[in-house]
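Hi support team,

I'm opening this ticket because the web form for multi-chain structure prediction keeps timing out on my end. I have pasted the exact lines I submitted so you can reproduce it. The total is 1024 residues across three entries, so I didn't expect it to be a heavy job. Is there a limit I'm missing, or should I split the entries? Thanks in advance, R.K.
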Amino acid sequence: MKVIKKILTWVPLILLALVSLIPFWLMFSMSTYKSEMIFQNNPLIPSNFLMENIKTIMESNFVHSYLNSLFVSALAMVLSVIVCSMAGFAMTVYQFKAKKFVNTLIMLTMMVPTQIGIIGYMIEMRNLHLNQTLIPLILVWIASGFGAYWMTSFIQSALPMELVESARVDGAGEIMIYLRIAFPCIRPGLVTLALLQFLWSWNSYMYPLLFINKQENYTIPIFVKSLASAYRTDYGAQLTGLTLATIPILIFFALGSKTFIRGLTAGAVKG
Amino acid sequence: MKRKLLSVLLCTGMLASMLAGCAATTAQAPAEAQSTEAEAGAEEASSDASAEGEVTITYWGWDVSNFAQPLMDKYHELHPNVSFEPTAVEWGDMIPKTQQALASGSELPTIIPMDLGLLGAWKNIDDIFVDLRDYGIDPSKYNQALMASTTDDSGKIFGLHEAVNPAAIAYKRDLAKQYLGTDDPEEIQAMLQTYDDYITVGQKIKEASDGKAFMFHSGQAIAEWFYFASTTPNSENGAINATTKYTEIMDLLTKFRDAGIVDSYQNGTPEGNATYADDSHIFFPCPDWAVSYYIVANDPDGAAAGNWGLIMAPKGYQHGGAAMGITTSATDEQKQAAYDFITWAISSEEGATLMKDTAGYITHDTTINTGDFAKRSDEDVFGGQDISKVFYSDIASRIEIASPSPYDGDITNVRNDVAQQVMDDPSIDTAAAVQAAKDELATIVTDTSVEIK
Amino acid sequence: MKKNIRKYSFTWPIIFLAPFFICFFLFNLFPILYAFYMSFLDWAGYNEKVFIGIKNYIEIFTRDKVFWRSVLNTLRIGLVGFPIALILGLVFAAILSNIKKLKSFLQTVFFLPYLTTPVAIGMIFVFIFEQHIGIFNKLIEFFGGKAINFVGSPFWAPFVISFMIIWKNTGYFTTMYLAGMTSVSEDIYEAAKIDGASALQTFFYITLPLLKNVTIFLIITSTIYMFQLFDEANLLFTNQSMGTVGGPGQTSLTIVWDFYNQAFGANPRMGYASAMSIVLFFIIGIVSMIGLKLMNGKEE
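Hello R.K., no limit was hit. The queue was backed up. Here is the completed structure from your submission:
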């Protein structure tokens, strides 16, 4: 009985772990090949072309695209976490008439499919003279409906009202309370949201595809796609770029995974 | 730990923005340096109209690193007042990006390359391009079939092709010898005069190899060949000639498939490309650019051993290639400079030679492309066979191009898709394939006013 | 005192909520309102705008079979993918919650697919499902089956996308469920144990009902995601040198891809595409409202 239970536990776990990891391994392994050689060999076993591929992408615009991606994602992350946590703070700490209405409104914002407004957004950005910059790729992420919803439910569970009340009695201003009292309490939630926001923006494809018209503004997904000339697609170099692009995400996740999962846990109580 | 993470994130953000700022300034520095050089060099290059002031030409294209960049670098060296800002855009993203720019009123680049397969779609919006006749182009000295494809109904010339891209059929000599008894191009050519010949020879290969070897690796690849070789216009008088066109292609494809001489790889995928190096696929449709991009790239050993041979297809056809157009939204200086650059690249000894050496593209300016100009340096891949003659005199003069239609992109995509289905499912006959193609076309052609015949 | 209350019930809430709603209005809602305006136009993007009233909508509802087919395609891809991912997520969360060793390591590994960029997923899955050399077909052949051209087949291609969804989301759902499970108080489990409930009974009668909110949350967000499906489908087919709009036989043409093709294809129809996006907006709105009702209904 114990053995059966063991098998029932570990076989699926190992299977899923393999299924989760193999594509990753393939991505890395194939990035060590010269593009044309990938399928003349067994792509599961790495080859020796990684440095050449790295050289190829370095000679193109990789570093610059990487920095663009970092810049866009970091800024989108910070801004959206601040804005969304402010909204969540307001929804928890204050009692006001339209609260129920606002709550529904936030729910609704979560459902708005932003992608479909892309044409209007483009025209808007042009009128603001931002269409030649990276700014449009940041602005669209700030008011994340998911973020506000998430923050609201998280703060409700993580921020004791007594703490806020006593701080008020001590004479602290509201902004102070938000920064000094709420922030430390909700840190796991912030980290969770930050990671997700960073991830979404880092991986985002359609916006940069349509918005960026200058090589110097390329983000990684678009850079990788542009590694195809008229008659040859350099899969090896593309996959090298993608492998390198996955690294920061992995680092962030590895660093924050405990906090991240704690954040999810607390959010899920209400969520 | 938590604090650490947050500070790491914040620091990275700041660092990134700083670095981005730095990078921007360093990128400007050389430009400034160049501008002082430009002033110094302006006198030398004063004979050109474009040498008068500082001008920057922008360019979107999928072919930057091997085609545009070397030409631009050289041109900038010769005319320091002309700088270039090329942006690499994936082939399939060219039209969406242009539509986006037009709809949002954003800037278009000065030069847009238009792929042969999408020429019709560009022609549809050719208001965005200048008429090259206004800049004094002489259409008579270029390949007439190519020029006709970039001339609209009013006679306006909205683009100039970069090069002629004649297409032939390449084969592996060792396998030909093994299964057909000879690897000599002339003898092979004699065996393969018509499409029916291909079926006969293909079956011979199949028998000789016990069904192990295929004549072709991909149904999509030969459907592409049949498509480019067909001169039936894709659309006429507001209707798409779907039935005629697809029947032509699918009829041949199903015949080839039923003869069992075509394998089921998808064309242009890395898996499909790997067949260039194996010993079970022998013949490959081969435009001139495929020599370096496909044969040498995928089969370096065979190429080094001169293991390839080349014959003409039953019909001369052009495969691939692009025409460059100049946008009307550019400034007059940009337009003139862009025109000077394009004609320098295609119609000057110096530019055309550089284009040949860096990209391997052969100009279609008949005044430049004479005598031994088009002599390729990679004939040893073909065991010394004079492939330059095959490509640039035997085939180039016979090229016929079906007149471009705005639906070419869709028609091509559907052809490609249905060709694979035909290969995967032997029960699909010509009629079923044509019907499937027409249904697909009805799905993806967004223009509701056009009739699909 | 009165002023004080007003401060807490009016001024500060506005100050804290304003950035969110201002940003939302400017960068998310306004573009959609603009799309609403454009949906009454006949406009290709480069020519004169012509006002044509509700003609675009009439076309969508009466003549445009492709749009409704794309809705069905999207549903087919999503309804195969997400429920399986949800069930797998729940199962693996249950398994994980019972082990001590390697728990957080495995959780991290399972979460990895969620981190991968769609561009990479598209490329790698093409390779995995390729007919001649792809790993998946090698497996099929190993077990005596016949290789299938998954990505090139109108029948199988949508399943590949569903599989991408499962691959990507299972770990994410597992983490979410696990989070929900750990938040269930230990006391309840202790009590169940004392009452002699088996592990399965505990799971079905205690854990599962308590996970209802997590489930509904995941279903709603997945549904919204499903209706906006584009990257996965598009990147699966355009990474090949010649991709067809909508994949083989257009069975992978999702709503947003159809929208994209209408708006930015070779024969652009911005006005019509906008009308499509507004219809999609209402579809998502209605479906989400139903979801919300369920969610709130359960709370009360």
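A quick check on our side: Residues 2-38 of chain C form the longest helix (37 residues). Let us know if the file doesn't open in your viewer.
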